[in-house]
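Predict the 3D structure for this chain.
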Amino acid sequence: MKCIQCNEGVTVDSFTTVAFEKNGAAFLFRHVPAMICPVCDEEYLSEEIQDRISEITSRCLERGLSVNVYDFQVGKITA
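Done. Predicted structure below.
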C-alpha cells in the first residue's frame, strides 16, 4: 500500500513494537505484524491486529495486571 504519511513509499510487511498505557496499566507488545514505510518509517497495523491488541488489553485489565508484556509471535503473556 502507498504510505499516506509521506505519499512516496510503498509499505513492506515487517514487525514492530507497540507500547502504551491504558487505565494506569502499561502494555508492551513485541513482534507485532505491521506494514512499514521504508521512506518515512510510518507504521500501519491491520484491523485484525488492532482488534487482537484490544482483546488482549481488555483481558489483562480484567485480571488486574499493571505491567504487561506480550510477544505476538509466541502468543504468550508474561507479567
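The chain is about 20% helix and 40% strand.
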